[in-house]
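Example 3.2
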Amino acid sequence: MYMSSAIDDRTSMYQGSASRVTIVAHLFGLLSLILILVWLLHYQGGLEYDSNEAYRVFNVHPFLMFFGFIFMAGEAMMAFRTVGAEREVRKFIHMIFHLIAICLGIVGIKAVFKFHEMINNSPDVYSLHSWIGIGTFSLFCLQWLIGFVTFMFPRASRPTRARFLPWHVSGGRALLYMAICAALTGLMEKATFLKLQHGYEARVINFTGLFILLFGIFVDLSIALGRYRFD
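Structure, written as tokens:
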């Protein structure tokens, strides 16, 4: 009886912590989204995939890659672990959010290839940023496909799902940090191209990168604490 009460108290403590950490994660995600829009719309002239201006086409890339592969992926992870709904509902939301992330990522990657074609066919996939980004995108798609087949349809047996679940969870967390790494190296690369060292635009880029990193950290903390709510 005493042990059961202690476990309930500990679970309640983790539930409260998970809720507070989730709120902080949402805050940093929204701040990152606002700052990247400020940077692209105010300092970089806007974003438009079908524009005749190459740099407006390019600006679609950082926005969609952040919104899809970091913001939506993070929200998908928190939705499964911290939302108070039936497991099947949380699983469906988790799957749909990640599918949206993949669709946005496809458009975002296509935008940067289109940009390179518009500026005299400049080389593709030559930087560390692009290597990390392409690798993350490929693994993200593979993770989604295997997860869908294993947990959604046609759905593996219970023992198989139980064996695969730790790998799925660990892989998702690793991919979130890989996406953040791609974003930070991309911001640094763009700042270098623009020769930004000081000034308001440089600070906007720096704070954007910082908030993206903090978003990822608090998402990770949220899902780590959130497991005590539903498991």
